[in-house]
Design the sequence.
């Protein structure tokens, strides 16, 4: 285990990001992140550049938002279109339906077990593809400003991680930054209300079903309740807990990055289920998480990353724009 790989949690490497940020051992950090992405599609980063107090502030305000009455939350409604991911979605409205390709089975799945979660999503203010949808002034003072501040903090962190990814591929450090300049990204606040363990066990309801993320990369902050699980790449259908690690941001590769890397990197299927040992009188406690979904600039066409293909290992995919790829996936999943 290298000096920057501090431990492994259920197969996912815990990597110290500080030597990349301070420049003392950039290549070792870059190699550790890329190797973890190749192994599991996930990595925990500690000593990352997002201040702890900013994460805590966002979680506090997220809880305040979800504690509002349904009537007030619905004043910032998510549009019916699955391609406009902004605003508030109530519990049971969305249903992850990825990796089900038969239309009859898809319909049955959506009716059988709704996703019992609620969310709020936003992006940059000037996004022409997906304009933000905010609460009216005075409903929750400071909410809009805190969300936007946090969005841009995560964007700066994302760019730093992309620098490490580039070095991992033995490319110039700014290679991926040129594809992530706008950003066409999404900040999501998530609340999983308390539910009975029995209903989750019987799958009459779900929190989030098995899926992979669509974009380039996801940065995830989660509370200590737990429940996130990732599929074992060597044993499809077998899931392993990906628990809270104090001080860490969890980062995972999306489908677009897997394609971009000519499948060098894994985009691993994951889900949220009942956490072990957290039941109180048969009830599973509320869970809060904050994922930040990174996408390549929508108007940029990307080809397979240099070094991921050769005569012996030819390109598997044609060039594609991030907008075409992500919009197709969003429309099919909502």
Sequence:
């Amino acid at each position: 285990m290298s000096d920057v790989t501090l431990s492994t949690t259920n197969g996912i490497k815990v990597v110290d990001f500080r030597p990349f940020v301070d420049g003392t051992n950039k290549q070792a950090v870059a190699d550790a992140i890329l190797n973890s992405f190749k192994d599991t599609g996930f990595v925990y980063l500690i000593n990352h550049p997002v201040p702890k107090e900013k994460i805590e502030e966002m979680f506090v305000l997220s809880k305040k938002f979800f504690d509002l009455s349904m009537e007030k939350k619905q004043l910032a409604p998510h549009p019916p279109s699955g391609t406009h991911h902004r605003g508030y979605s109530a519990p049971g409205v969305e249903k992850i339906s990825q990796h089900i390709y038969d239309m009859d089975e898809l319909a049955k799945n959506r009716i059988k077990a709704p996703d019992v979660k609620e969310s709020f999503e936003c992006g940059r203010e000037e996004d022409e593809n997906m304009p933000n949808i905010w609460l009216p002034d005075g409903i929750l003072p400071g909410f809009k400003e805190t969300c936007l501040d946090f969005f841009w903090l995560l964007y700066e962190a994302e760019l730093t991680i992309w620098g490490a990814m580039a070095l991992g591929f033995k490319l110039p450090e700014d290679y991926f930054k040129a594809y992530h300049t706008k950003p066409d990204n999404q900040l999501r606040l998530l609340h999983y209300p308390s539910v009975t363990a029995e209903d989750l066990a019987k799958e009459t309801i779900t929190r989030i079903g098995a899926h992979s993320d669509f974009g380039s990369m996801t940065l995830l902050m989660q509370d200590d309740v737990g429940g996130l699980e990732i599929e074992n790449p060597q044993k499809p259908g077998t899931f392993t807990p990906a628990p809270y690690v104090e001080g860490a941001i969890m980062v995972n590769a999306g489908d677009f990055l897997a394609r971009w890397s000519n499948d060098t990197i894994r985009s691993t299927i994951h889900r949220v289920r009942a956490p072990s040992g957290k039941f109180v009188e048969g009830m599973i406690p509320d869970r809060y998480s904050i994922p930040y979904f990174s996408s390549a600039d929508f108007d940029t066409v990307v080809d397979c990353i240099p070094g991921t293909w050769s005569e012996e290992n030819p390109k598997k995919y044609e060039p594609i724009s991030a907008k075409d790829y992500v919009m197709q996936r969003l429309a099919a999943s909502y």
Observations:
- Confidence is low (pLDDT under 50) at residues 99-103.
- Residues 49 and 157 are 6 Å apart (CA to CA).
